[in-house]
From TrEMBL:
Family as reported in the entry's similarity comment: Belongs to the RICTOR family.
Annotated region (Disordered), positions in chain: 919-939, 1003-1072
Protein known as: RPTOR independent companion of MTOR complex 2
GO cellular component: TORC2 complex
GO biological process: positive regulation of phosphatidylinositol 3-kinase/protein kinase B signal transduction; TORC2 signaling
InterPro entries: ARM-type_fold, Pianissimo_fam, Pianissimo_N, Rictor_IV, RICTOR_M, RICTOR_phospho, RICTOR_V
Pfam family, one: RICTOR_N
GO MF entries: protein serine/threonine kinase activator activity
Domain Rapamycin-insensitive companion of mTOR middle: start-end pairs: 420-639
Length: 1072
């Protein structure tokens, strides 16, 4: 055995510190990493780490060799120290890359990428190499076209064998493990600017190798590559099946998710997924990132490769490839500019295969089937996400009826054509089977729902005994005491239909006035009695132990919600003591699920007891209930509940002072989203809330006050603006870089932000589906929304100082790189409005930013420039400036109904071209209608893309034009004549797309009639609307854009939405 003094000696050396080579070698004599004693080896590794911390530049190559030896052969020798040694090699590579590279350490790191199946470790290994590639000083140690491309080998080399000694019987298992590890490494590489630029450079790049492998008929390789692509684009992976519809349903955003259960996130979680983010002008930087990656793959032939996979693969592979093709075409149509619409040629290629008899029959049939499948996919995307639960559907339908003066509540369309006659009513009462027998579930519930919604039919107008008998039987079925409806399971096939009819039944009784009051009162009192008897202080009497979680009894709260939407219904609820009953539950324990149902069901559009109940739960309930009630305020905000600014903002401000930090943080996040609407921002300023106790996030919310003159005056009078200008110049501009890059880390990697008071870097294996990175608030970005703020920036020469930093960057040190990033983000925020854009134009700094984006040696700076140019292109003026320098931009809103086709884009551009956008700071107007991005153009989605990421050809950016109208998801479906409209060219009536299809099919040219041509010399209605639209300005957009016949859009739901030390943690799209 090794004497104990050797262990103590190593420990003493580590604790005392190692400051010279002599003392290093003093410990090396007895430092053998292959010693049997694990305690001594542990002390030796600790000493090695201490040596790196004290002075990595003096780290001896002999110890490096020992570490590398364990890293290379440790897995085969089953050495338990192999991961520790690899971690130390990565740490040393960041501090002293020369000693690691010269001893072959990078080769060891990349070799272990294919051996590692844990995403967090795999990610750290890959990003160590990417960190070196990012900077020109360390890039020399990584061999171009060799090192990073090694992670692609399992997919691109069919004879690849990672370990030559692998037995034949284990080859399949070993290959699957290599696919998994390689996939993790490839995805991690595409999460970094260094990785993207390295793998997508011109010539024989890694991306071309991946796409080329798709064209080789190997089902194992194809299936693995499809999973890689789904991961890269953050798309949900369909189930493995040969049935397209089954696979399509598995990726439907409206499909039920476990976190939507009553016992979990319930309606608050569902709404956060289904309902779109309220921001109209704030950019989602993830759109920029995805657009860049998508453009790179499309330019390298991905769509053509997918067509080959679809037409020549096994059914389960073909199904996945078809869905991926549809997802990418949808994404491209949304976030890529029209000038990059060459991807539309993909589907004419598929049509050629489906229509040609010169190819094999099997391939032709597969192509034809793929077209039908893409049509189904198109319809799903066109429809958009729909509420799954009746509770969320109830909230949305109520908002629709409020804003559009329509009071309708239905789940499915009527399938019966009814005649408004008494004879027809009697006949349908008979056909509904309600009067014929008491087998409730055998009744014709479609017909029952139709009768209840029949115009002018109620107990007041019809005194017929059969109708009363019909009502009594329905009443008996729905009463809790009958234990019929209430005892049905939630997963019963007709559960939603029965509940929807029950809500219609309560409205029917309500409309019958006094003739139906008795029935309605009997039903409501029976429900109240059931609530009182099924709940109590003891846990065994709580409602969740009486079937609330699993039966339709939880839907009785929807009956209350339906009544609370009507003034007479509110009176009925008061008369039956429903509100008092619910108020009593607020003070009871073990009733969390009941309070969730209460919060999610009541209507809050009118001032009354419903808001009192909500307010009491927000302040007096348990922590979990208060948190859920706070989250429900986000649901009401996104659903655009009427007059939310008058009462909802006040409730959120109250929650900022909750003793639970999670609740106050949630309220702060919701307020940040709410302030995207000027009415909410004005209401918040009027309340003058205290935000200093909320840290940096509270500061950022307070900065939003500066975006309007009223808030600017309020803060300026207290000297706040002057103090903030000083702080941002000294430190906050740098902290802004850390903030935004930490958001990228959380969105793109396994990194998770440490909790309060914990500096430990957390990582998670949970994969986020399509995360969002909305641009944080910046002081300069808020000031440029009005002339006074711009004058302040101009008087302090802010733009001049920032421009100097951009023109004279110090890229040798990480501090200089961070300073440059801070200057770029500041300039981008200033250029996000027309007022600020004029300041950038005066300084002529935009060409310098473009030069950095294309030629900067530090690759992460290129990525920052891409985002900054994206902010500049938020306005039409900025977009035009970029276009002048050959950078293209998307010119449609994030909320424009999908699909977006070129004709509509051109029309929108023509409308905007006549609008002056250049403003002068000498203008007398302080509230320019063209200036604020919330009134002109919203979140921009941008991306830099050269033809092969190395040429000097045109780069692309994306611009969104703001829509100052109601939410898109409140619009009802348009006329049926748009049902054939599609993103895909063969479904579209666009003239441009038609020409492309005809040319691709080599058919005779046909002259297409211009949709604006006059018929018989008369102006059509669509032409008339078009002429009226030309007078609309940028600040007065229309949410319902009219199009020529056959080209209408259906509105859809759209949901979108640092470690400071130099460690091996992943840093996406950035590098120090």
């Amino acid at each position: 055995p090794v004497p104990d003094f050797q262990i103590r000696r190593l420990s003493t050396l580590r604790i005392s510190g190692v400051t010279s080579k002599d003392r290093c070698y003093e410990g090396i004599e007895n430092l053998s990493l292959f010693l049997i004693l694990s305690i001594e080896r542990t002390q030796a590794l600790r000493l090695v780490r201490k040596m790196i911390t004290v002075n990595a530049s003096l780290f001896p190559s002999s110890i490096t060799n020992s570490l590398i030896a364990v890293g290379n052969d440790g897995l085969q020798e089953r050495d338990r120290m192999v991961r520790a040694c690899i971690a130390i090699i990565c740490e040393l590579a960041l501090q002293n890359p020369e000693v690691v590279a010269l001893q072959g350490g990078l080769n060891t790191i990349l070799k272990n990428v294919i051996d590692c199946h844990l995403s967090r470790i795999n990610e750290a290994l890959v990003t160590t190499v990417l960190h070196l590639i990012n900077h020109p000083k360390t890039r020399q140690y990584v061999r171009a076209d060799v090192e990073l491309e090694r992670i692609l080998a399992p997919y691109t080399d069919f004879h690849y064998r990672h370990n030559p000694d692998t037995a034949e019987g284990q080859l399949k298992e070993d290959r699957e493990a290599q696919f998994l590890a390689s996939k993790m490494g490839i995805v991690a590489a595409f999460r970094s600017w260094a990785g993207i630029i390295s793998l997508c450079k011109p010539g024989n790049s890694g991306i071309q190798s991946l796409i080329g492998a798709l064209c080789i008929p190997n089902m194992e390789i194809r299936g693995g590559l499809l999973e890689v692509l789904y991961d890269i684009f953050r798309l949900p992976l369909p189930v493995v099946t040969e049935e397209f519809i089954e696979a399509l349903l598995s990726v439907d955003p409206s499909r039920f998710q476990d976190c939507w259960r009553l016992s979990d996130g319930f309606v608050a979680a569902e709404a956060k997924t289904i309902l779109p983010y309220r921001a109209r002008s704030r950019p989602d930087l993830m759109d920029n990132y995805l657009a860049l990656v998508l453009s790179a793959f499309i330019n390298n032939g991905l769509l053509e490769g997918l067509v080959e996979v679809i037409t020549s693969s096994d059914d389960h592979v073909s199904v996945r490839a078809t869905i991926l093709l549809g997802e990418l075409l949808h994404m491209a149509n949304t976030i890529l500019p029209h000038s990059h619409s060459h991807h539309l040629h993909c589907l004419p290629t598929l049509m050629n295969m489906a229509a040609s008899f010169d190819i094999m029959k099997e391939k032709r049939l597969r192509a034809s089937a793929a077209l039908n499948c893409l049509k189904c996919f198109h319809e799903m995307k066109k429809r958009g996400p729909k509420p799954y639960s009746l509770h969320l559907d109830h909230i949305i339908q109520k908002a629709i009826s409020t804003h559009q003066n329509r009071d309708q509540y239905h789940v499915q369309k009527d399938i019966f054509i009814l005649k408004d006659t008494e004879e027809a009513l009697v006949m349908n009462l008979r056909d509904s089977q309600v009067l014929n027998h008491k087998e409730n579930l055998e009744w014709n519930w479609n017909l029952i729902g139709t009768i209840l919604k029949w115009p002018n039919v109620n107990l007041r107008n019809y005194k017929d005994e059969q109708l009363h008998r019909f009502v009594r039987r329905l009443l008996y079925f729905y009463k809790p005491s009958s234990k019929l409806y209430a005892n049905l399971d939630l997963d019963y096939a007709k559960a939603k239909q029965l509940t929807a009819v029950g809500c219609q039944f309560t409205e029917f009784l309500l409309e019958s006035e006094q003739d139906g009051q008795g029935y309605l009162e009997e039903l409501v009192k029976d429900i109240v009695h059931w609530l009182n008897t099924s709940s109590g202080m003891k846990p065994e009497r709580s409602l969740q132990n009486n079937g609330l979680l699993n039966t339709l009894s939880q839907h009785y709260f929807l009956f209350f919600g339906t009544l609370s939407c009507h003034p007479h219904g509110v009176k009925m609820l008061e008369k039956c003591n429903v509100f008092q009953c619910l108020l009593n539950f607020c003070s009871l324990k073990n009733q969390d699920h009941l309070l969730k149902l209460t919060i999610s069901s009541l209507d809050y559009s009118r001032d009354g007891l419903a808001r009192v109940i909500l307010s009491k739960i927000l302040t007096a309930a348990t922590d979990s209930c208060r948190l859920y009630a706070t989250k429900h305020l986000r649901v009401l905000l996104r659903a655009n509940v009427e007059f939310f600014s008058n009462w909802g903002i006040e409730l959120l401000v109250t929650q900022l002072h909750d003793k639970n930090k999670t609740i106050s943080s949630e309220a702060l996040d919701i307020l940040d989203e709410a302030c995207e609407d000027k009415a909410n921002l004005h209401a918040l300023i009027q309340m003058k809330p205290a935000l200093s106790h909320l840290g940096d996030k509270g500061l950022l919310l307070l900065l939003r006050f500066l975006s309007i003159p009223k808030g600017f005056s309020y803060l300026n009078e207290r000297g706040y603006v002057t103090k903030q200008m000083e702080k941002w110049q000294k430190e906050y501009n740098l902290k802004y870089v850390e903030l935004i890059e930490e958001q990228f880390n959380e969105a793109l990697t396994t990194y998770r932000k440490p909790v309060d008071g914990d500096n430990y870097v957390r990582r998670s294996n949970q994969r986020l589906q399509r995360p969002h990175v909305y641009l944080p608030v910046h002081l300069y970005g808020q000031l440029v929304h009005h002339k006074t703020g711009c004058h302040l920036l101009e008087s302090q020469s802010i733009v001049t100082d920032l421009s100097y930093t951009v023109r004279s960057p110090m890229l040798d040190k990480w501090e200089g790189i961070k300073q440059l990033k801070a200057a770029l983000w500041a300039l981008g925020n200033i250029g996000s409005s027309n007022w600020g854009l004029n300041l950038l134009q005066d300084e002529n700094v935009i060409p310098d930013i473009m030069a950095l984006a294309q030629h900067c040696e530090v690759l992460s700076i290129r990525g920052t420039c891409v985002y900054v140019l994206g902010l500049i292109a938020k306005t039409k003026q900025g977009c035009d400036i970029l276009k002048h320098h050959n950078w293209d931009a998307v010119r449609h809103s994030r909320r424009q109904p999908w699909p977006v086709v070129p004709d509509d884009m051109d029309q929108l551009c023509n409308e905007l071209s006549s609008i002056p956008s250049t403003l002068s700071l000498n203008s007398e107007s302080t509230g320019s209608r063209h200036n604020s991005e919330s009134k002109s153009v919203p979140s921009s989605m941008f991306i830099m893309e050269n033809d092969r990421f190395g040429s000097t050809s045109t780069s692309t950016f994306f611009l969104d034009i703001t829509e100052e109208t109601e939410q898109i998801f409140y619009d009802r479906p348009g006329p049926s004549k748009d049902k054939d409209r599609s993103l895909f060219p063969f479904f579209s009536s666009s003239r441009l797309v038609k020409n492309r299809i005809l040319n691709s099919l080599t058919l005779p040219n046909k002259k297409h009639r211009n949709s604006s041509d006059l018929k018989g010399g008369k102006l059509t209605s669509s032409d008339s609307k078009s002429s009226l639209r030309r007078n609309r300005t940028v600040t007065e957009p229309s949410s319902n854009i009219d199009f020529p016949d056959g080209e209408e859009f259906n509105p859809v739901f759209r949901h979108y939405s640092q470690p400071k030390s130099k460690t091996a943690s992943y840093e996406p799209l950035r590098s120090k």
